[in-house]
Amino acid sequence: MRLLAFALALLVWGAAAAQNRTWKIGILGAQSKASVSYRIDAFQKRMAELGYREGRNLVYEYRYADGQAERNAELALELVAARSDLILALGLPAAIGARQATTSVPIVFTGGDPVRAGLVKSLARPGGNVTGLVDSTVDVSTKRLELLKQTLPRIVRVAMLWNPTNPTNPLQLKDTQAVAPKLGVKLQAVTLAQAGDVERAFSEMKAQGAEAILIPGDPLLNSVSSRIKESAIRARLPTMYALPEHAYDGGLLGYGTNLAELAAQAAVFVDKILKGAKPGDLPIEHPATFEFVINLKTAQRIGAEVPAAMLQRADRVIR
User: CATH classification of 18-135+258-281 is 3.40.50.2300, yes or no?
Assistant: First the structure.
C-alpha cells in the first residue's frame, strides 16, 4: 500500500511540476508558415485546453523550412540551441531533420510512414526520442488513384508529381505504380524537386498526354500548390490531392487525413512527455478518419463530369 501511495504521489507531483514551470516548445514546420499555421493553431488550442498557456507556463519557438528538405536539420539545430524542451515536427521531413539534430530532446511528429523512412524501429515501440502520429499519406496512396479512376472512369494516362528529396514520395510512387495496371491506368512519374520546376513539369505532362494528375503529400508540392492548381485548371486537367484541404480552393479531388485534427492530437503526446513519459515508450498512432472532398466548382471549370454516386460517397462537396 505504501508503494502504491508513493507511486500515486509521484504522478501527482509530476503533473503539478509540468504545470508550474515554463516550458519551451520548438515548432519545426517542413512547409511555409502560411501552409502550417492552421495546424499550429489547432495544436496550441489543444495545449491551452490541457493547461499550457503561452506567456504563463509555455514559450513557443518557430522555424519553417519552406519546403526545402535540406533546411530541416539546420533549423532543428537552432531549436536545440535555443534550449527547447521538446520539438514538434510538422511533416516527416521535419521529423527526420529534427532526429538528425538531436537524440536527446524529445520529438513529437505528425507525418508519413516513419518505419519505412527509417525514423523509428516500430510504431508500437518507436524507441529513442521520437513519437507522434502518422498521417497515413503513404498507406492510402493507392486509394487516391482508385477514387480518381472511379470519379473519371475514362482516363487512362495519369501523371504523378513527386519530390525525390522527400523520403515518403518514392514510397507513394512505388505503391501507386504497383496498383495502376490493375485499374487500367498508365502512370507517368514526373519529378518536381524545386519550386521553379512547376512550368517544366506541366510541359512534360502535356507532352506525355496526361489526362489527370496525382499530387502526393509533400512540403515542397504543398508550398507551390496554388501554382499547380492554376496550371491544372488552365490545362483542364483533373487533380487528386493527398490533403483534402487542397480540394477546398481549386483542386478537383482530395483524399487523406485532417491535419488540424492530427496536430491537436499531437498536443496529447506533448502533455504526456512534459509530465514524464519517455517518447520511445509512447506508441505512434494512426488517424481515426479520412476525408474525401470533391470540388464541383473546379469540375465545371475544367469540364469534368462527376458521377452522382461519387458525390454521395464524398464527405464534403464544394459547390
Answer: yes
